[in-house]
Amino acid sequence: MCERATVVSTVNVNGVRAAARKGFVEWLGTTSADVVCLQETRAVWEQVPAAAVPHGWHVTLAPAATPGRAGVALYSRREPVAVRIGFGSQEFDAAGRYVEADFADVTVGSLYLPSGEVGTVRQEEKERFMAEFLAYLQRAQRRAADQGREFVVCGDWNIAHREVDLRNWRNNRRSSGFLPEERAWLSRVFDEVGLVDVVRSLYPDVEGPYSWWSYRGRAFDNDTGWRIDYQVASAGLAARARDAWVERAPSHAERWSDHAPVTVRYVGVATDGGSADNGRG
Length: 281
Fold this sequence. Notes:
alpha+beta, Deoxyribonuclease I, Chain A, six-stranded mixed beta sheet, 6 helices, 12 strands, globular, disordered C terminus, hydrolase, AP_endonuc_1
């Protein structure tokens, strides 16, 4: 008998319209995931191709107020119990940066943390977001626990936490995404809030596995990547993770985003009130 399981996947699609033309629709048709978190959708509902919302999926889209910017989405095979867009931030709730949904056993969030750029207002924006979001993570985890749910935030965190998460770390010590203060902030997410980097907990000694490669040069072919896409979960949910994988495209030409999906299988977790036996035990 198969052990009941829930599979969660996350990917920055780098524009859902472009991704739909390049292979996202085909990937969605074959994925084993029960919940899929998207980032950088860059579209309002009227712009999303019909093929990118296939029958059988419940979809929540949270676009940015600024056209063509950011945007997050959450796809699920089961209808959520509740959905929330934003995290109570006056500055960021209309920026297409966060959406979350409650299911039977788990609350799942899709996050697109600002990328930043050293010495610019973009980096200042990123720092403000991190300060607000850290406080929210503490509240959200407590709320989920009070409701009897585990908690996971999936998405593009735009920070490589450790040297092992970035191939060319020596040359990026002063780059946004690998700044000491950003890495220290992510450590606070783990050490103070008590959330767990699921992939790293499963594979503590593995270099990477990377989830983003620049389109410039031969970064993808040489696997000169960054691990910035995470599933960050409550300790109870992380303990239920059995395996995880990065769905790296076979070749540069077959990529449909500059990111690859990061997928985790959690056992003993249901999205439908207790019958998550999906035959993937």
